[in-house]
Design a protein that fits this description.
This protein is α+β, with helices and mostly antiparallel strands. The chain contains 16 helices and 13 strands. Helix 13 packs across helix 15, helix 14 packs antiparallel against helix 15 and helix 15 crosses helix 16.
């Protein structure tokens, strides 16, 4: 009997806010332990939470980005449990009335478009961080109260690779939507992976086994691959799977049982009594909707459709939003968008990387800090029309492709127009047949070995002679004419 995997993911994402969810403490990574705390996030008696409006806004914005419904009534609940990292002995979350529900994410997978349904994306608070030493443990409450979005998928994922691609697509949406920095090294994205197996063709789900607190997408893929194979082996050998929670040992490459869960945990949810329900107005929802950006997959498809770009180029402009936006300014109405795309991807982005490395202070931490200090392309000295003019010079054979590289480097450093650079430096391509014939005669006379090789049937030897002609012309000779004239002279 053949078995298939059924996977659902619970992805926890820290929202990009300056302060925590219920108080004014900084939402900041890397501070000394227990310095970004106050009576509210420490759960002291008598304190009252005040919702962070920016967190509420980013939650609903995420709902729009994930094609969710936005209910007109939502509330917060207390999830009651005792653990050292929960300062209040409960966690504020959304249970039966979340802020968003019933959405989906479309993404590329195995040459097509796959869809994973989103059950809900609800807002809650993060808890503290435990650090275990030899004989003691410490808890840092700097993270306690940080706004956390839990994005729960339906069990629509069927393989480890599909889970990996879904997570990458989700991260790209959240990054480009400005919802989160999604820095996994700083714990901003964590995943719980729910996996079961069942006979192919059946509908009933098997025992759900959860792998907790995955902190890398590649780790999710490796853990899912292992766990799927393990579960199939258990059922094929006559064993029984029991609902349980496991951990992933990345070094050993195995999952290990933490606890069994014959019955679901009873967290004794009840509505948060210190907070009013949420009832977003039409005007507020319209403000949030106005912040919705173009989804990455739609952006890629548009670049392919509107500019005739291949999938690889469109993928670059999908991921690098600033580069793609500048390309659109330059390419508007131009007859050769593919050539312009090549110059942006191969030349402009490389020059930008060099410049960014030389001027960006190493002390900057977040993408937001870097963006405000050094926005991509704000520093460019040349104008968008200069990029168009450069491509036009190559297309009209006024300059060669190699000469165009020199012209672009000069444009980048000085801001001069390509026409001015070509004129000042005498870089115009030589297309005069008589002049090129003279260069070809000199190259043939000075290089008898490749001439003999070509005449003996080694076609590649012609490239050596072309190189000599280009050297003699200082790169100005029209390469196409050079090839034609050399072939004619050598076959005579």
């Amino acid at each position: 009997m053949e078995y298939e995997a059924v996977i659902g993911l619970e992805t926890h994402v820290q929202l990009k806010t300056k302060s925590k969810m219920w108080c004014g403490c900084a939402n900041q990574y890397g501070s000394e332990p227990n310095t970004n705390v106050c009576p509210v996030c420490l759960g002291m008696p008598g304190v009252l939470p005040v919702p962070n409006e920016e967190a509420l806004r980013k939650t609903v914005l995420t709902g729009f980005l994930l094609n969710c419904e936005i209910p007109r009534y939502a509330k917060f609940d207390r999830k009651n449990y005792f653990y050292p990292d929960a300062s209040k002995n409960y966690q504020l979350t959304q249970y039966d009335k979340p802020s968003t529900a019933n959405g989906f994410v479309d993404f590329e997978f195995q040459g097509g478009i796959s869809r994973v349904r989103i059950t809900r994306a609800h807002l809650e608070e993060d808890v503290g961080k435990l650090t275990h030493f030899d004989r003691t443990s410490g808890v840092d409450f700097n993270r306690a109260g940080v706004p956390l979005l839990e994005i729960v998928s339906e069990p629509d994922i069927t393989s480890a690779d599909m889970a990996y691609e879904y997570l990458n697509a989700l991260k790209e949406i959240l990054l480009q939507g400005g919802v989160s920095d999604c820095d996994m090294e700083k714990g901003m994205v964590r995943c719980d992976v729910n996996i079961s197996v069942r006979p192919v063709g059946t509908k009933e789900l098997g025992a759900k086994i959860e792998i907790k607190n995955m902190n890398s997408f590649s780790g999710v893929r490796r853990a899912a691959e292992y766990e799927i194979a393990r579960q199939i082996e258990v059922v094929k050998s006559g064993g029984k799977l029991i609902q349980s929670t496991r951990r992933w040992d990345d070094v050993a490459g195995i999952t290990e049982e933490m606890r069994t869960k014959e019955n679901a945990h009873d967290y004794r949810y009840f509505p948060e009594p210190d907070m009013m329900p949420l009832a977003p107005t039409d005007a507020w929802l319209a403000e949030v909707r106005a912040q919705v950006v173009e989804l990455p997959i739609a952006r890629k498809q548009r670049f392919m459709r509107d500019y005739g770009l291949p999938a690889g180029d469109a993928e670059v402009f999908k991921s690098n939003v600033a580069l793609g936006n500048y390309f659109e300014i330059v390419a508007k109405g131009h007859k050769n968008p593919k050539a312009l795309a090549n110059w942006h991807i191969n030349n402009l982005s490389a020059k930008h990387a060099e410049r960014a490395k030389s001027v960006m202070p190493d002390t900057l931490e977040t993408a937001e800090q870097k963006d405000t200090t050094y926005k991509m392309f704000d520093y460019l000295l040349f104008k968008p029309e200069d990029m168009r003019a450069l491509v036009d010079l190559v297309d009209s054979k006024a300059i060669s492709s190699s000469t165009a590289q020199q012209v672009f480097a000069e444009m980048f450093e000085t801001g001069k127009s390509p026409a001015a650079i070509v004129q000042e430096k005498g870089l115009a391509q030589v297309s005069d047949t008589g002049a090129i014939e003279k260069f070809c005669d000199e190259a043939i006379a000075a290089n008898p070995a490749p001439v003999a090789d070509y005449k003996a049937g080694k076609a590649a030897a012609l490239n050596s002679l072309k190189g000599q002609v280009m050297k003699l012309s200082k790169g100005k000779a029209n390469p196409a004419l050079v090839g034609e004239i050399l072939e004619r002279k050598l076959k005579a």
